[in-house]
Write a structure and sequence with these properties.
This protein folds into two domains: 203 residues, Jelly Rolls; 301 residues, Alpha/Beta hydrolase fold, catalytic domain (Rossmann fold, 3-Layer(aba) Sandwich). The protein contains twelve helices and 22 strands. The chain is elongated, with a radius of gyration of 30 Å. The chain is an alpha+beta fold. Strand 9 and strand 10 form a beta hairpin.
Length: 598
């Protein structure tokens, strides 16, 4: 053997020893990433008990904290094929080119640097459904998302272009260099499999995970002097640090790193939210399980709502009385704590012959004035979408109470810097209440509870038929008041029901909507599930950007399962009307009549 031949053989052997010679390829050029026996070649990034191998299939159960599996190698240009099966209502995903910034936490690595190809059969929009590049690129067309059935992804990454086929149908074809955010994403990283990112009772399974490395489309110019062809490429880019010991360089200069693209709060919080699935999400299958869940979750919700003021004897001051065509409106002040009197507009219909239901009406961030309806003339046609629902219900024979929510109008402290013309001090209320171990929602619900105390003293009120109605910020209070007070027998909420994740958490909502720690324990639909079996009407404008309708529909689906389990499926209703952020009376009177008998 010549010296040259011997050196070449030694070089090839060294390269194979260093990992350049991969597993044996199949006839189609694909290499298995999972051997069907163990997790060789993979790193478990969460709890080991979150993962198992059963009959050659990777299996993950919900609620076990498995987080994700990632390959030990990084990949740049490739075709990845993976078969998957998910439970009904399950949530998982396949990660590509992820985790290149090892300064990130192990949980955050998987998504913020690369992409998640989503797996889910819950009701979601096209940017968050199966096959989407989660939160970045919507699918078109929408793939089959059937539960408990094997599906196949074929994911191709070549340079900046990413394509996804689901069950053989292309649903994503995206060039990340065309987007200001995604063009900063790396072109090389780990491949990952997410665990069953759902509560206990759900699962995800993977099998036949295979990869085919692709040649880079980039090529160097022809070096005519050295006779090198511009078509000369490698199937997988070779890291230069693998050659350091073979080709030492004198006086090496440290290479400059690229500035990380994950340096904004949204990438941090997205990763943190992904790693914080609700611990107490509803998943009951029997009434006994539901009751146990309700006890535990309600206790946690009372904790996050914070402590309440010390109760004082009920005192009421009657200040103003104004007669209208069908009702009389009083302005009263109710002492809700030692140093605070809550202003309340109290509407009493003229013709009440027996005790009648009462509705506590809660206004939103535009303050109390639009809810009084003072500019409305007798006999004037009222549009279906209108905010003076306290007056509307009084005109139809219901006693109503419209408190000025703490922090608005005459109760305001220092003015919010972003509050506009209505007098409001949500920032003042929020900061001070949190510093005292309270919450703005808790304090405002406390005032509403004292209004119910007042209603119980009124001879014209049927104390067994007291309901609440709220829009926007008042809708937020309608989420929590029924948890605090069992005297609330019926709920109508508008302009709020959606999800914490894609509403309060994702948008620039008012700080007073923040309930510390709630996303650790449950979603908005779980909170409303605590109202069951009481009747609930969800009112949402389909064009209300502050409460995404896709999340509202998904939450409604869960609530229908809750109410069906409890044997009262007709007590959960929705009015998802074609309109903006507004109150709708499209179904309110029918709903009240059905459940309050009037």
């Amino acid at each position: 053997m010549s010296y040259r031949t011997a050196m070449l053989a030694a070089f090839v052997a060294l390269m194979c020893g260093r990992g350049f010679c991969g597993d044996k390829k199949g006839d189609d050029g694909f290499v298995p990433l999972f051997n069907g026996k163990n997790f060789d070649g993979w790193t478990i990034m969460g709890k080991t008990e979150g993962w198992a191998i059963k009959d050659g299939v990777i299996h993950s159960d919900g609620g076990q904290g498995g987080q994700w599996l990632r390959t030990k190698k990084k990949y740049s240009n490739f075709i990845l094929k993976v078969e998957w099966k998910v439970s009904k209502g399950g949530n998982s995903g396949v990660f590509i080119r992820s985790g290149t910034d090892l300064a990130l936490s192990p949980v955050a690595q998987r998504l913020v640097t690369g992409y998640e190809v989503q797996i889910s059969n819950a009701r979601r929009d096209d940017s968050h459904c199966t096959g989407s590049l989660y939160g970045f690129v919507a699918v078109k067309p929408r793939p089959d998302e059937s539960a408990d059935k094997w599906h196949t992804f074929e994911i191709r990454c070549q340079g900046p272009r990413v394509t996804v086929k689901s069950d053989g149908i292309k649903c994503i074809d995206f060039d990340q260099s065309t987007n200001a955010i995604t063009k900063k994403k790396p072109l090389k990283g780990y491949i990952g499999l997410q665990d069953s990112h759902s509560p206990k009772g759900h699962y995800i399974e993977y099998r036949n995970v295979r990869i085919k490395p692709l040649k880079s489309k980039r090529s160097s110019n022809v070096d005519k002097k050295r006779g090198l062809s511009s078509q000369s490429t490698l199937e997988a880019p070779i890291d230069s640090d693998r050659f350091v010991s073979l080709f030492p360089v004198r006086n090496p200069v440290a290479a400059l790193s690229e500035k990380p693209s994950e340096n904004r709060v949204e990438t941090s919080f997205r990763g943190l939210a992904d790693s914080t699935p609700p611990k107490l999400a509803w998943n009951a299958t029997t009434v006994k399980e539901h009751k146990a869940w309700r006890t535990g979750f309600r206790e946690k919700m009372l904790e996050v709502l914070g402590r309440m003021p010390e109760r004082v004897p009920l005192e009421v001051k009657w200040i103003e009385k104004k007669r209208f065509d069908k009702f009389t409106r009083h302005k009263i002040y109710i002492q809700t704590e030692k140093t605070f009197w809550c202003p309340v507009y109290y509407f009493v219909p003229h013709e009440i012959k027996k005790r009648t239901p009462a509705i506590v009406c809660l206004h939103g961030h535009d303050g109390v004035v639009p809810y009084l309806g003072e500019g409305r003339k007798p006999g004037e046609a009222r549009p279906v979408l209108s905010r003076d629902f306290a007056r509307f219900f009084a005109e139809h024979g219901y006693v109503t109470a419209l408190p000025i929510v703490r922090g608005w109008n005459e109760t305001a402290g220092y003015q919010d810097p972003y509050g506009g013309s209505p007098k409001r001090s949500c920032q003042n209320v929020t900061m001070n209440s949190l510093l005292l171990g309270m919450s703005p929602a808790g304090l405002r619900c406390w005032d509403a509870m004292r209004v119910i105390d007042f209603l119980e003293t009124q001879k014209k009120v049927d104390t067994k038929r007291i309901g609440i109605a709220g829009l926007s910020g008042g809708g937020t209070l309608s989420l929590y008041l029924p948890i605090l007070d069992d005297r609330v027998k019926l709920v109508m909420m508008a302009g709020v029901f959606s999800s914490y994740r894609n509403s309060f958490f994702a948008m620039n909502h008012c700080i007073c909507n923040c309930l510390p720690g709630v996303m650790q324990y449950g979603e908005m639909s779980d909170v409303v599930a605590l109202h069951a079996p009481r009747p609930v009407l969800l009112i949402n404008g389909q064009r209300d950007k502050s409460a995404p309708i896709a999340d509202a529909r998904q939450g409604l689906g869960k609530l229908k399962r809750v109410y069906t389990l409890l044997g009262v499926p007709k007590r959960i209703e929705a009015d998802f009307f074609d309109g903006p952020h507004e109150w709708s009376n499209g179904k309110t009177l029918e709903f009240l009549s059905k459940h309050f008998g009037k």
